[in-house]
């Protein structure tokens, strides 16, 4: 039941119950409303710990607790009450149980037991008529005798007051009250001007009035929207250091020895912004620079003898220990994939790639390359369009490398659209599982999250054959987020009820074949959000001429001149591109014959399907040079 009553989407829980109802042939409808049912943190959705950490009889004790709880609910006599208290006291001392035990009792007998989750505890401490138990609820997890005393007193109140029918009704009202309180608090904060917290440096020590409590850190640590996995890995890297302190480079070197760089800078900045967004009570200002020092939120910092030292705040350390996070999250040295998922603040060592490298490989003039790069960086979205064989895909990959400054393929993602490609394939959608359906992210969703976790570095998403897909169907509500002015602004997704944004550091390159008749399907909404760059056949470019001289093939030279004449008869979007001849390196006579007979002539037959005489004329002219 714990695995079901954890924080997951309502739709998924409904699907699970519908399958259970069908499988067990239950004569009742499956519920669609779960308001007020206590939920567990997904990271701790069991009542027992790993084998090496739990006691020998922990699981047996939990089963015995389950048995006696049902017995006590049906027959609450003195003997079963004594046995209940004894087992309850034994179980709450087991690792991974504590207050969860009362929530489990509520799940199995909701009219007899009350879950002491945070919503119920807070509600009962403030609602009229529960004064006798308010003090007990403000303390730590009650023992078995106190727990039964609390529910006995609450049951008396329910019997005397028609406000609540039973524990189920009380739990739902507590949950609804918490939602109202959150809404009121959020509205009030929007009306108030956020307080400015100043970061200052004195005698080499960074200080700021950051009054974040242990309870607030616990809430944020359990919220994946705040502590995205790389951020959680990062604070645990520091937690495992002596006295929870160390320099940025030293901690990275110890925990990620295979990486060359300091991956934490981008993670800390992104985490700091999410912490401020979560708390919504102050803004951060740095007296020493234009932007705030987000390190000061989870850390205290000072200049050491050789390096600047960062130490986890005491309240954050206490929260990590109370949640036992260090036991449940593997060490970073065992999970370098956290960095590979987009957490690095600096790139791993990879082969550099410069403007000169681009111009050596792509047949564009220097001024064309600079215009292309400037337009992409300014607009965020660009479409490389052109006839077949002008090297659109080849150019896109190398443009991405040139912007990154290296062949860092970890920050590049590429997909190809086709007529059956959908929003669910591209972004987010439900996929069948063995026991139902599961909401799974697509490549664009994952890549956006990867870029968001590393905001100081550019990330580039490439879409080949963009115009072959149903663009309105694929992009959905993302159309508005593509615009530069809306980057970083959240919009609620149609699946998963999640606020999502396309980060500002994500650049998008699309490719369109202008000879494809589906080009007409590209609507104005997309055209307005992209800048377009035309790639043309580069037979007369300095780079292609240089390559021809290196090949030194008379047959290639004559064939190229003939194709240039052919292009004069073709519409601009249908011309023959230079990459037909150079995509496989130095072409042999056999390569040239294959290109003409099996690529160029079939293409001309497609272009001039209603002009066979014209096709025949050019077939003779092109094959003449192959004799």
Low-pLDDT stretches are 328-349, 517-521
- Biggest β-sheet strands, sense, barrel: 6 strands, mixed
How far the N terminus sits from the C terminus, by CA atoms, comes to 78 Å
Looking at the chains present, what oligomeric state does this protein adopt? Answer: single chain
Specify the helix fraction band. 40-55%
The assigned structural class equals alpha/beta
* Global Rg: 32 Å
Shape field = elongated
Beta-strand share of residues: 5-15%
Mean pLDDT: 80
In short:
By secondary structure, the protein is α/β, with parallel strands linked by helices. Mean pLDDT is 80; it is low at 328-349 and 517-521.
Describe the protein's architecture and organization:
By secondary structure, the chain is an alpha/beta fold. The protein has 28 helices and 15 strands. The strands form four sheets. It has a six-stranded mixed β-sheet with strand order 3-6-5-2-1-4. Strands 8-11-14-7-15 form a five-stranded parallel β-sheet. α9 packs across α13 (314-322) and α16 (355-361) runs antiparallel to α18. The longest helix is centred in the N-terminal third of the chain and has 25 residues, at 167-191. It starts with 9 loop residues before the first helix and ends with a helix.
List its salient traits:
627 residues, alpha/beta, six-stranded mixed sheet, five-stranded parallel sheet, 15 strands, elongated
Could you give the topology of this structure?
Elements: H1 10-24, H2 58-74, H3 78-92, H4 100-108, H5 118-126, H6 131-137, H7 144-160, H8 167-191, E1 195-202, E2 205-207, H9 214-221, H10 229-239, E3 245-246, H11 248-255, H12 264-279, E4 282-286, E5 299-303, E6 308-312, H13 314-322, H14 325-328, H15 337-343, H16 355-361, H17 366-379, E7 381-386, H18 392-404, E8 412-416, H19 423-426, E9 428-433, E10 436-441, H20 443-452, E11 459-464, H21 471-475, H22 478-482, E12 491-492, E13 499-500, E14 506-513, H23 524-529, E15 531-535, H24 542-551, H25 554-569, H26 579-582, H27 589-607, H28 612-624
Parallel strand pairs: 1-4, 7-14, 7-15, 8-11, 11-14
Antiparallel strand pairs: 1-2, 2-5, 3-6, 5-6, 9-10, 12-13
